[in-house]
Amino acid sequence: MQRTAGKELALAPLQDWGEESEDGAVYSVSLRRQRSQRLSPGEGPRDSQSPSPHADAFLHYRTSKVRVLRAAHLERLVGELVSGDREQDPSFVPAFLATHRAFVPTARVLGLLLPPPPPPLPPWVEIKKAEGQDQSFNKNLRAVVSVLGSWLRDHPQDFWDPPAHSDLGSVRTFLSWAAPLGTEALEAEKLQGNFLEEAQQGQEEEEQPQARAGPPASAQTRSPDSQEGCLEEEEGLVREGPDLLDFSVDEVAQQLTLMDAELFSRVRSCECLGSVWSQRDRPGAAGTAPTVRATVTQFNTVTGCVLGSVLGEPGLAAPQRAQRLEKWIRIAQRCRELRNFSSLRAILSALQSNPIYRLKSSWGAVSREPLSTFRKLSQIFSDENNHLSSREILSQEEATEGPQEEDTPPGNLPSKLPPGPVPYLGTFLTDLVMLDTALPDMLEGDLINFEKRRKEWEILARIQQLQRRCRGYCLSPRPPILAALRAQRQLSEEQSYRISRVIEPPAPSCPSSPRVRRRISLTKRLKSCPEREAHPLAGVLGTPHPLPPVCLQVPPHPVLEPGTLLLEVPQPLQGPRATAPSSLVRTRPPVWFREPCRSTMWPSPGPVTTSSSKSFLETGSS
């Protein structure tokens, strides 16, 4: 018996069998093994609960065939919504409703899904005869009503089609005679009212004067090479009112978490699809994915606040600027405790950007404990193994059990165990864009590749699960902090670099050596180069930014002197562009030649560079 139990654990409960094709559809077939309980000969189905002593002597299994739709024509996919077996394929309906906009508009699906209304009965026909309608028609009718109920509840924005909302009108017309008293009809009526209210609010906002308009563009833009413009920008950064860092660490982190959770909860899953998000930069696509763009804007705002507060006052001494760096590190740590990975990533991206990272004097004044915290937080978003570290940490945070919304009202949630987490949306956007690029939309025979949509649905389902958990945050808005956050001036990439160079001017270039090269030891030449000074974060941050190249003293135009050792045989250039004499052409420069060092600007840290108008979030998913 023990040997039999061991074999039972070794057998897989679900085994792939192959594929089947029928009527323009391809199914993936698998065999499911389920253990069945065989009763002893003397027992009946309703006998006593005491099992027979020989009931477990043998293991009995029941094998069932499971078919999952893999690819089909559009008509067959819509028909599967009504006639499909939800016990065998429970994920088909939610996967179709969440991803259908990638390959078919909503109006087309409704045209195939909704049956026409039945003809009116003649007056001489009794109602009792009408009750004897075809049972299959009633079953399909109930299935359509059920699909519409899930559609209205989970994806209401699919029916947004101003000003008439014709798709929602078709659904209301169908439900008026198919299920006039059902919850689906009430949901459709409520959604219609919400759409009308949103349209009215949008019209009122357009009629109001633009009171929030900023200064004219001429007052904000200056010549990048003008010293006067740079000084005016530095003075313009000083503003009246409380600064964002004047508030406590907990207050700032909680407000950032509140805003991130609200924006993430409003994200529409269909806007995250790779086929939708990848089209955002095309002409005429400015209104594409507005809810995702809102999270991108918030991410850039937080990054800009860090840059503006650290670089905002060029006259600060290095210890004072180090205090600002330390406070932002503590805010990032508090965001980690609140499980807000969105603002955590934004703060770290700003601190790792070139304009802040190159401030060696300021980083040198930061104490050891904040530097250690910064190192640990930076390891969360390591690029190794496709951001494996951040994925694992997010999965662990999802598995953490907290108070549920159904059992405990949001007002009674303890602050020590906050809900969430709020993820960094760029990870999911990158996965969906890569998935959309790797898998084809159509298969042989003009069949829609629904297996691709299932894989997309697995990611979207995780986003929706995180959205439900983010709605449990119990945080109250603080208008002064929100006002300080909005009032913080956002620096462009060019402005950040210029101000950073004003704070710590770049070291002068390495002096040129004489034309006749002397034998100087490598150690002596390295000591004479200012670029070899160690960065305060070189041993703390785990070198997220490459160190500057070795600066050697070389002539501006290398001259081959008599006795110069050639370390390789000159080779002629290959191809049509080989116009120089073969005796003067090398495949690569010799060892003694290096490009002169130009400045102390630190190289870019990889995909996360600076706070340019193209966000860090967009960079990972473009």
Q: Explain this structure to me?
A:
It contains 25 helices and five strands. The chain has helices spanning 2-10, 74-83, 92-99, 106-113, 127-130, 135-154, 166-178, 183-207, 217-220, 227-236, 249-265, 274-277, 290-311, 318-337, 341-351, 354-357, 360-364, 368-380, 388-399, 425-438, 450-470, 479-487, 493-503, 522-527, 616-619, and strands spanning 14-22, 25-36, 60-72, 442-443, 447-449. The protein has a five-stranded antiparallel beta sheet. α14 packs antiparallel against α15. The longest helix is centred in the first third of the chain and has 25 residues, at 183-207. The radius of gyration is 33 Å and the shape is globular.
Portion of residues in beta strands equals 5-15%
Overall shape: it is globular
Oligomer: single chain
What spatial order of strands do you see in the largest sheet? 1-2-3-5-4
> What is the ordering of alpha helices and beta strands?
HEEEHHHHHHHHHHHHHHHHHHHEEHHHHH
Largest sheet features: 5 strands, antiparallel
Q: Tally the helices: what do you get?
A: 25
